[in-house]
TrEMBL record:
This is Ring finger protein 133. The keyword Metal-binding applies. The chain crosses the membrane at residues 7-27, 171-196. Keywords: Membrane, Metal-binding, Transmembrane, Transmembrane helix, Zinc, Zinc-finger. GO terms for molecular function: zinc ion binding.
């Protein structure tokens, strides 16, 4: 359930992120590059009057379209408002605007150099009160010039649209790239953590099943009066160093050595070998342990179900085996234990692990039993 909640949160975040990206970046860029659907996108000059203006379009007469000379003629001015169509180059923007305004133009449209396509930029020029100054792309400017030269009367309408701020676009592109990369990293990290957790869970379940079967092969025996282990020369458990007593439950290993059941089970999980002859008990029982990279020791997760299966009647046994059950951790205590690193019988660590899309939390608790 927690994984589903985190996954839903991530998809909702992605949805709103791309919604924000579309409306605040993608749509304005389309409008800037391709222009409005019914017209051509232009950029006002930095000192231009920002207002709506309409009128007949008039280019300079003659072959020179730069309008750099004071005697430049725009033909017979129409009765109403008109706008000058001037090519970029030859002189400053301010000089071109001054010539057109001197001839009575209500606005000045300057189209960019040949070969620049639809590229535009905000021009720097001197302010002229009430005069609209804007730049359009070369393609649209040349197209309108050819229409006028063919005798077509061209009327233009200049309206104030979205303000084009280059630095904002640049910063927003950088922000979008960094944010997208970060979001992609966390998504892939989350997927990777889920995959690793699933693999580890399957490995633990498989190993737990093998351990159940393996421990089921080891013989259990309850000591009674008259057994050789209880005589005057009887042995003691080498794990807890206590003498065997009647009704003690012992486990007999494959090497025929026996120990208190509650002592030897955690020992085998911790060391995998017999305390006396160092026989590899787990290997003898057919338990195969896969260790990734050969460096990390595999951590075996012993569930309460396995503990109950391996320790029937454990509560009653611990009452009789006071020394063993109080000085050594039982199967319930060995929640996490290494099969390749020696663990102290009096120290164990518990490491619960939660998978998070942003962080991995590790809690290690060390407990010492008196």
């Amino acid at each position: 359930l927690a994984h589903c909640q985190r996954t839903c949160f991530i998809f909702i975040f992605i949805f709103f992120y791309f919604l924000f990206f579309y409306f605040f970046f993608y749509v304005p860029v389309l409008e800037h590059v391709y222009g409005p659907r019914l017209g051509e996108a232009g950029v006002f000059g930095r000192s231009s009057a920002l207002k709506r203006v309409a009128g007949v379009l008039a280019p300079p007469e003659g072959r020179a379209q730069s309008a750099c000379q004071a005697n430049t003629s725009f033909g017979d001015p129409p009765a109403g408002p008109w706008l000058a169509l001037i090519a970029r180059g030859g002189c400053t923007f301010t000089q071109k605007i001054r010539v057109a305004v001197g001839k009575g133009a209500s606005g000045v449209i300057i189209y960019n150099f040949p070969g620049t396509g639809s590229q535009v930029f905000p021009m720097s020029h001197q302010a002229f009160e009430g005069v609209v100054v804007l730049m359009i792309g070369n393609l649209k400017g040349v197209e309108m010039l050819h229409l006028i030269q063919k005798g077509v009367r061209v009327t233009v309408l200049v309206d104030v649209g979205r303000r084009h701020i280059i630095w904002m676009n640049h910063y927003f592109v950088s922000f979008a790239i960094v944010t997208t990369a970060t979001l992609a990293y966390f998504i892939f990290y989350h997927i990777w953590r889920l995959w690793v957790a699933r693999i580890q869970s399957r490995r633990r379940q498989r190993l737990t099943t093998h351990l159940k079967q393996a421990f089921g092969q080891l013989q259990l025996r309850v000591l009674k009066e008259g057994d050789a282990e209880l005589g005057a020369s009887g042995d003691s458990c080498v794990v807890c160093f206590e003498l065997y007593k009647p009704d003690d439950t012992v486990r007999i290993l494959t090497c025929k050595h026996l120990f208190h059941k509650d002592c030897i089970d955690p020992w085998i999980l911790a060391h995998g070998t017999c305390p006396m002859c160092k026989c590899d008990i787990l290997k003898a029982l057919g338990v195969q342990v896969d260790v990734e990279d050969g460096a990390e020791s595999l951590q075996v997760l012993m569930s309460s179900e396995l503990s109950a299966a391996l320790s029937p009647g454990a509560e009653g046994t611990r009452t009789d085996l006071g020394a063993c059950s109080m000085t050594d951790p039982t199967l319930e205590d060995f929640v996490v234990c290494s099969l390749h690193e020696r663990c102290s019988p009096s120290v164990f660590s518990m490491q619960p692990h939660w998978v998070s899309p942003f962080f991995s939390w590790f809690i290690v608790v060390n407990l010492k039993l008196d």
